[in-house]
Fold this sequence. Notes:
By secondary structure, the chain is α+β, with helices and mostly antiparallel strands. It has a domain at about 195-330. The chain has 13 helices and 18 strands. The strands form 5 sheets. Strands 1-16-15-9-4-8 form a 6-stranded mixed β-sheet. Strands 10-14-11-13-12 form a 5-stranded mixed β-sheet, sandwiched between helices. Helix 2 (about 75-85) runs antiparallel to helix 3. The protein is globular, with a radius of gyration of 25 Å.
Amino acid sequence: MNAPTAFPDPKPVPPYKHTPLFPLGADTAPYKKITIEGVRVEKVLGKDMLVVSREALRALSEAAFGDINHYLRPGHLQQLRNILDDKEASNNDKFVAFDFLKNANIAAGGVLPMCQDTGTAIIMGKKGSRVLTDGDDEAALSEGARDAYLRRNLRYSQVAPLSMYEEKNTANNMPAQCEIYAEGDDAYKFMFMAKGGGSANKSFLFQATPSVLTRDRMLAFLKEKVLTLGTAACPPYHLAIVIGGTSAELCMKTVKLASARYLDALPTHGSPDGNAFRDLEMEQEILKMTQSLGVGAQFGGKYFCHDVRVIRLPRHGASLPIGLGVSCSADRQVLGKITKDGVYLEELEHNPAQYLPAGAGARWRGGKNRSQPADEGYFGDAFETPDQDAAVADGNHDRRARFRPRQTARTAGEGRTAAGLFQKSSGLLRRPRQDA
């Protein structure tokens, strides 16, 4: 029997009211202007259109990946300082926090990055409906990321598959992961992230069942899974947990955004329309749970996590994806935007020395015997005087000259050997002798 070729009159339906899945609040990040070049406003069909050049996109991306490998957000640095001031923190916690603050000061010198794993370049853009470009945005943004890795002392981590089992380093940290969405009006907004392998490896998807959706079962489930994170990705972590999702991939995408605090401005309650929301009460419950585990900041203590984000998403009735992930102590992400007024990048902290405690050298130096256990008060290589603590970043500027040959050679694609920093011997690379 043939299928009918006509359908009955359609059933009347109410007017459609769209509810964004992620209804974010206002952007309150502090920004600095990178440039006004490459941005102009043109009239098109009677509307003001923001015209953005390819070079503006490239320059913003290069500046972003340069900054996030050397500077951190003030909030992250304050959380490290809070560990030093917390009487409940273990000596292990304080040892790690103090070392991370010293490391931040070294990185802020602009020569050495904060972590040897300088990450995969990840770019998310939201292009407004009245923004015009030449259409090759992904290439321009990727070129900017590549330029940052070539021109700075940043490791190339990406390997290209030549066959199923043979790989080769791409020698420029490409390809970047670039995703561009159509959203908004007359602005082009971005998030840039350098995601290291250690923290990326601590991303987990669990396909649970709806029976887990009770408070006691959920907390027991999460406690077991959080413990599996371990310390290999350099805690204290920014922990993100996502419960639900219209698909497994949306669940995990939300985990990554939440770990970067990109979704902090979500509503704090749900609705019949199915919007995402943050559960602030559960965030505090899980944070207290992580503090009670005894794992601490790598060697035992209270600070396994700086903070927790819990996002609840709508789901298919037969599915309950639960995602877990972290941002590690190399907490590298930055926001950017292009408006009619210019090209802007989120302002990160260029003076992390202010977060070191007064009298840091005397207060935290501890013993000099490296065999002395941390729980007896050893805080490692703290500087001898507070003045040295505050001068770390300044001292690194004097080292720039030594690295300029490497930067020049890497920009030209010639690598470190051509810069004279290494020489080949029996197939291996070694530093040249100073007396040669």
